[in-house]
Design a protein that fits this description.
- The structure is a homotetramer of 125-residue chains.
- Chain A contains 2 helices and 5 strands.
- In chain A, a hairpin with a 2-residue loop joins strand 4 (83-92) and strand 5.
- Chain A has a single domain (5-119), classed as Roll (Thiol Ester Dehydrase, Chain A), CATH 3.10.129.10.
- Chain A has 125 residues and is an alpha+beta fold.
- Chain A is elongated and about 40 Å long.
- A 5-stranded antiparallel sheet of chain A has the order 1-3-4-5-2, with helices on one face.
- The A-B interface holds A 19, 24-26, 28-29, 32, 49-50, 52-60, 63, 111 and B 19, 24-26, 28-29, 32, 49-50, 52-60, 63, 111.
- Strand 2 (50-60) of chain C pairs antiparallel with strand 2 (50-60) of chain D, so a sheet runs across the interface.
Chain lengths: 125, 125, 125, 125
């Protein structure tokens, strides 16, 4: 339903571990950078806390390594009143290295779920 | 089936983000420290790459904050020839703040799946 | 002048990089955990921001690796009205692997320098 | 002496801590991404370990925050046979937020210092 957003990222030593591959938790950080780039300028959270990850699943198919040029493809797969589902693929040379799905809640400044701002829905779906 | 391993950990600034709570990717790092402590001394991987995370699911129930004293409870839930399933709970004052499940493969030095060493099975299940 | 505080820490994959050694920025995180453990229970920052690193120097002598058991030795080397100097050594089997020195300022809730709480001086020097 | 390399970077939640500012160790990771971008395509390390940080100094002047668009300016300040000195400035809207200086050694595959490859000197100075 929504447009696919593409975010390029180059793997640095900071992302790797002693197995010579990208450390499994780093995918989550790279994915957050991709979502940030995707949301940038599309809406304002004002005093709200904003989006918080409630559940996350990631499957690792083939490892990423130092200097790899990755493209993270982000797409919304479902939108509720206060919750969004997102899928993010880690692509290298058109093959999928990992797939992540997230359930993300929108929180107001009291840390409670809150209706997602209109501009978000309008711009990104 | 297996014994529960408990690993205490104190949240530092390094673990938190600007929302004032532990950053969602950090749970994975803390969980790795817990697994490392659990496996310590139980078996040797020799020249093998060792365990690599293939799939991971995490549900976040209530946020962790700076200075929180967390206990990570680790338990094996399934063991195959080259794959292990693990559940890890993030506990604070006896309530569950997050639950993570992992499917972890054992890899030889050629990065291919390999039979898990005997001592691992014997000691930890 | 002040007592030496010792903090043990075990190196995990999260701390290493593709060179097979601890990533240089990770020393700063481990050092923060050591300072946190050192300060724990000694004083309250109330509404203040607390200590913020203003300058930092680190010399790396010999690399740390996966599973290494490190002890971080922390000592205060100077105390001013709103600034403290700290030295932290990364020890492995009684040899120094890295030395870090920091200049740390105490900030009030307005992010401005503020007099360090009395209990801090009394307890830790 | 050398040309100034500029690397833009956007601050994500992953980079921040509970004080609402970029965590002090994260500057080192961002700086590494900048150096990687700077070196990219300029020379090959073959089987060598490559550059390793031996000493580092960083002064923090004014904090960086979520969504800040930073430019890291990298410049070589000295070149020896096996050692390079580098200065990196974190710029926001033309003001300097932090300055880092590094002494970096080139290591061969035996982890010993080794003469820096010719193309490195030729291209980057």
């Amino acid at each position: 339903m929504s447009k696919v957003h593409k975010f390029p990222f180059v793997i640095a030593f900071a992302d790797t571990d002693a197995e010579g591959i990208v450390y499994h938790a780093r995918y989550l950080e790279i994915a957050e950078r991709a979502r940030m780039n995707w949301l940038k300028g599309h809406f304002s959270i004002g005093d709200d806390v904003g989006f918080v990850v409630k559940e996350l699943n990631i499957k690792y198919f083939s490892p990423l390594r130092l200097s790899d040029e990755v493209v993270v493809e982000t797409v919304m797969t479902d939108v509720g009143a206060a919750v969004v589902k997102i899928e993010q693929k880690f692509m290298k040379n058109d093959s999928v290295c990992a797939i992540m799905t997230l359930r993300v809640a929108y929180l107001g400044k009291d840390m409670q779920p809150k209706r997602i701002p209109e501009e978000f829905i309008r711009d990104l779906i």
